What does this fold into?
Amino acid sequence: MPDEAKQSIGVAVSSATTFLVYRVAAYQERLPAKTLPPEFSLEWEKPSSILKRVSTHSPKHSAIYTLFHKTGIFRTQDFSVMLVMHKGNVVHGSTVFPAFFRFPFMEPSDLQIGMLYTEPEFRGQGLAMAAVARIISDQQFLNRTFWYVVGEDNAPSIQVAKRTGFQLFGKSQRKKRLGSNFLGAYVIEDVVRVCDSAG
Ligand SMILES: CC(C)(COP(=O)(O)OP(=O)(O)OC[C@H]1O[C@@H](n2cnc3c(N)ncnc32)[C@H](O)[C@@H]1OP(=O)(O)O)[C@@H](O)C(=O)NCCC(=O)NCCS
It folds into this structure.
């Protein structure tokens, strides 16, 4: 796909102060990925292209996460985005984030799905669910635990997590570190449920 088709489509910024933390345990087999109508296609955006610009991130987030990827702040090399394409345009993106300092509850090999964004006119058609299901069913991620952190008031995103097999693990608050939000961390204050690992 030409780079110009991979335009930036938006950024998810939450105003919530309490975040729900969901987890999918390290299953050895995952649910089959949901299929989409033929006019949509799923496509990985991997680090080589991410190093130019992440389609679904603002320039600021793109630069920061690229830096984290290049300098080893991300604990593994799995930073990538699952795109949903429609007629050559990006209409959805879900980002795979490796563990880093902001999420101290993640083990080094754990992954998180975040910064989901669907173009408003394409919402409610199952695109986010298809992208998330595709990520967690990918062969390369067998035996990896996935996390999903969402503002407690974000009903559509919570629904995506639930419908793709995530289970509520706890509630967290974002705490500043050294007075900085950027250096801050999500601290789980209320463990709701500890998932059983089938792996
Ligand atoms: C969250 C988001 C990515 C979901 O994208 P999407 O492609 O519309 O998601 P899907 O169509 O796969 O699934 C959405 C689900 O939420 C449901 N939903 C939508 N609005 C809802 C609401 N107000 N309350 C409860 N459920 C709602 C849909 O019905 C659907 O569930 P269902 O199929 O079980 O009925 C999209 O709403 C978005 O881009 N939001 C702005 C950015 C954002 O908040 N990102 C998440 C950050 S964690």
